[in-house]
Design brief:
The protein is an alpha/beta fold. The protein is built from 11 helices and 14 strands. The longest helix is centred in the middle third of the chain and has 32 residues. The protein is globular and about 70 Å long.
């Protein structure tokens, strides 16, 4: 693929940090993990960041730390990666699905309609790099005494007003290889709650604070210093990475603005987008289908992504599951049929972005 949907580039800073860990002889969780936690907590404006083995574990750990029980309900969006759903199922809670807004994030009005005596948490997803409306969601949670777990896997450094995502509740971030901040596999959990942070650190280390002194049934959810070494330099470059992605997104929006039936992403007032993905919608009034556009992009060797072609719970393995509600979400269903993501990553040259624009415009005008 001449212009890939994503590109993983490991630079000299990461190489030097990894070599330093290798030479130290300490490969497991150690001082490099501690430095990653410190720098990321500072970035998010919270006192605690707890590193874990991957982003799904971050969600699972956050929900376990909250002490959810069978019969409890968690409200989330159906338009996300299956890790969001799987983590709630693993907690034993029941999943309720709220619909989304046109910006792909969970609709607070739909959330409010689902709140009942069994509701224990709201789990918004900051999708494609755009934060959910945390002002409205926080008001709902506060009024009903609910916890907030933020699925921020795609939104490192995004903000709502003057606050970073991950500071509104328990924030869960992924460092999978294609994320804006990555180390191959890894996760980070942010919180301002001292008790939650303490519980998370206990759970990730087999229930131990001191070796062989078990205080709770736990897990091996630790991150290694080798992985942290890849991520640490990227924290310092995250603002630069985000700015480049935002520049590419602006060029795409300007270049695709007048195509019939194609809707480019917008950023609601008071929220900042970090452009993990640049996702357009191909509506019924477009001169071609989403699949047709994908074929044209394939012909031009331009990568694209369908994130996500079906709602999570519409796959056979989830249909009829006793922990999954059957809530109707027509806007999410329509988004799954219309969304297509174009390359926006920081490694694109201006000419690459121009080629993407030309290919999409050519497909629409063929």
């Amino acid at each position: 693929m001449s212009i890939p949907i994503t590109s993983v580039v490991i630079g000299p800073e990461e190489e030097a940090a990894v070599l330093s860990v290798l030479r130290s002889g300490r490969l497991a969780q150690g001082p490099m993990v501690a430095e990653l936690e410190r720098s990321f907590a500072e970035l998010c404006g919270v006192p605690h960041a707890v590193a874990v083995s991957n982003g799904t574990v971050a969600l699972v750990a956050a929900l376990e730390a909250l002490g959810l029980q069978p019969g409890d309900e968690v409200i989330t969006t159906p338009f996300s990666f299956a890790a969001t759903l799987n983590a709630i199922l693993e907690s034993g809670a029941t999943v309720r699905f709220a619909d989304i807004r046109d910006d792909f994030t969970i609709d607070p009005d739909s959330v409010q309609a689902l709140v009942n005596a069994r509701t224990k948490a709201i789990l918004p997803v900051h999708l494609y790099g755009l934060p959910a409306d945390m002002t409205a969601l926080t008001a709902i949670a506060d009024a009903a005494g609910l916890a907030i777990v933020e699925d921020a896997a795609q939104a490192h450094g995004a903000r709502v007003g003057d606050r970073a995502v991950g500071s509104f509740g328990v924030g869960c971030f992924s460092m999978y290889a294609t994320k804006n901040l990555q180390c191959g596999e890894g996760g980070l959990i942010t919180t301002s709650d001292d008790a939650i942070a303490d519980r998370l650190r206990l759970l990730r280390n087999q229930g131990m604070r001191v070796r062989y002194q078990y205080e709770a049934p736990g897990h091996n959810w630790r991150l290694t210093d080798l992985q942290a070494a890849i991520a640490v330099p990227q924290v310092g470059r995250l603002a630069e990475t985000t700015a480049r992605r935002a520049s590419n997104a602006a060029r795409l929006t300007a270049g695709l603005a007048d195509l019939p039936g194609l809707t480019t992403p917008s950023v609601p007032a008071g929220r900042s987008h970090v452009w993990h993905q640049y996702t357009v919608r191909i509506g019924a009034d477009a001169p071609l289908s989403r699949d047709d556009l994908g074929k044209r992009l394939d012909e031009r060797e331009i990568g694209y992504g369908l994130y996500y072609p079906r709602l999570m719970h519409h796959y056979d393995c989830y249909v009829g599951h006793p922990q999954i509600g059957t809530d109707e979400t027509p806007r999410a269903l329509r988004a799954a049929e219309e969304a297509l993501s174009l390359p926006v990553h920081q490694h694109l040259a201006d000419d690459d972005v121009d080629q993407v624009i030309e290919a999409v415009r050519g497909a629409f005008n063929a």
